[in-house]
Structures are given as structure tokens and as C-alpha cells.
Write a structure and sequence with these properties.
20% helix; 19 strands; disordered N terminus; 338 residues
Length: 338
Amino acid sequence: MKNFTPLFSLLSLLLLGGCTPRVEVVYDPYAEVDWSTTLQLRSALHVHTANSTIEHGPEEGTTVTPAEQIDRYEELGYDVVALTDHDYVSYPWDDYGRGASRLVAIEANELSKNDNLCSYFCDWLDLPGTGPATTVGFEECIRQVGEDGGIIYLAHPMRSGDICRAEFSAEVFRNYENVYGMEVLNVGQFKRNNSIKLWDELLTMLMPERRVWGTSSDDAHSTGMAGKGWTTMVATERTPEAVRRCMTEGAMLFSTPLLVEGAEGEVPAVRAISHDPKAATITIDAAHADRVEWISCGRVVATGESINYAECEGVAKYLRAVLYGPGGATFTQPYAIR
């Protein structure tokens, strides 16, 4: 005789608890944020200098010095900069006469001999001095950065290579805990490197168990490319340690003016986000925004500054918001939904 106990138990739970299974947020990237006191640090996480030619040669096509690039981002009012030269660590900044800069300096480089990876908070390099064709391999790069205490974000994953495929990149996130996110908006080559669709595909495949944070970057190879896209760290202090916490825990926003045609004025800014688990609502208090879209599984499921995710049809796995205004667009990180 067949055992119908599991089916009977499920039906009993539904009858006793209501006809709709409970929808809940199992990870809130802003849960620890006190919006009344927090710092919002505008950050450039993908920046190049002439040092990118040291391992890869003049084809990288940049002549701007580290000092010039640091000065440019300071002029633009940024708070955090990671110089991510191709297979070269342009750090410490004392080496370039900028050790006293008010910017928070992040040790980093772009591992570029395979599919590109931005490595942060470590100085590990892929066989330096051997040229661009000699490498330990893509996965070994990830392992070595992890062993050295660093973290990784996929760089412009829609440009080329295996990381363009959601199935491949999903396995990278499943297999390596030190890969925390991806560059969703690379505005240096915006039309080639818009990875919003890939991000939603990965979130749909991996959430709520495996979180994937997003960023926006200039990928600046000149001072003129600076300031088109940025990631905002919602941090407690101006230190590399605080930036690392944001990058690993998801307390970030990211923005660009380029998603709005003919953008003029201020890009939308988040003043506060409040989450009420009992009411199952998330509300965004924003400036310079005239439209808020809520996205789940790659679809817009609601609009407006507030959403009831338990009552909104189509919410599953994750929920993120995009704020649009006359000056551009700002993205939140995804909430994990079960």
C-alpha cells in the first residue's frame, strides 16, 4: 500500500495555515543599516592606469598615470577607488605620491589572462612577468585569490568568454564562496557590457540560497571616462574593512545616468529603505526618482515606492528595485525570497 502521509501533511498545513504558502525575506542586504547615521560612499571599483600595459603591452591603450587617475576621482567627489590594472597591483598609493589622498584606497587588480575577474583586497597575481598568454587557469586564479584572503567580482561578464553563459557563471558562484558578485553595469563600453539580463538569470537560478551582488563601474582607461557609473557603499566608516563588509554582505547601491536617454540632473538617490517582515512590505524613500520598478525572476512585478511582496503576484526567489529619474537610474541589491 502506498504511503500518502507527506501529501496529507502538506494539505493539512495548507488548510490550517491558509491557502497561500508563506512568502518571506530570508536575507535583507540592508538589515543592519541605520539610514539616519550611515555613510554613503561613492565608489569606483574598476579603474585602469598605464600600469595595465606592464603585463599586457601597449594594446591596452592607456597612458594615464595612477596619480592622475586618483586625482580625477578625488575631483569628482568620490570616496573609494580601486585601481584594477590588468594583472598588475597599483598599490600602495604611496608609490605614486598619493598616500595622503582622502580617498579610501582598495588593493585590487583585474585578472585578465582568462575570462576577466576583478580581484580585491589582495595582491595575488597570475604568473606576473610571463606575458598575457601564460596563466595558471581561470579556476586556479579564483582559488589562489581566495587563499590569499581576497574576494572576486566577475568583470563585464557579457563581453566575451564562458562567463557570458548563465549556466557557466552559476557554477562559478556555486563552487567558489569568494566570488561575491558581478559587474552588472560596465559603462566604459555600455552597449557591449550591459549585463542586467545575465544578472537576473543568475539570480533566478541561484537565489535564495546563493546571493549574487551587483555593481556599476566606469572601467575607465582615461580620466575622461571617469564618473559615468558608480557603486555606493552603505557603510559605517571610511575604511577598506567597511568597504569589504559592504561588498560581501550586499549593503550597496549602484547607479549610472546612461540608462536614461538624454539624462539631465541628479541621479536617483536612496535616503532610506525600510523592511517590515510582519507586514511583508519594503519601502524606499528616495530623492530625484519619478518611478520605482520592482523586479523578480527577470520581470517587473510592481511599481511604486512600496511593495507588499506576500501579496504581489510573481515574486519568487529574489526581489530587487530600480529607481528611475531624469538624471539616470539607481539599483538596489536583491532581497532573498522564500
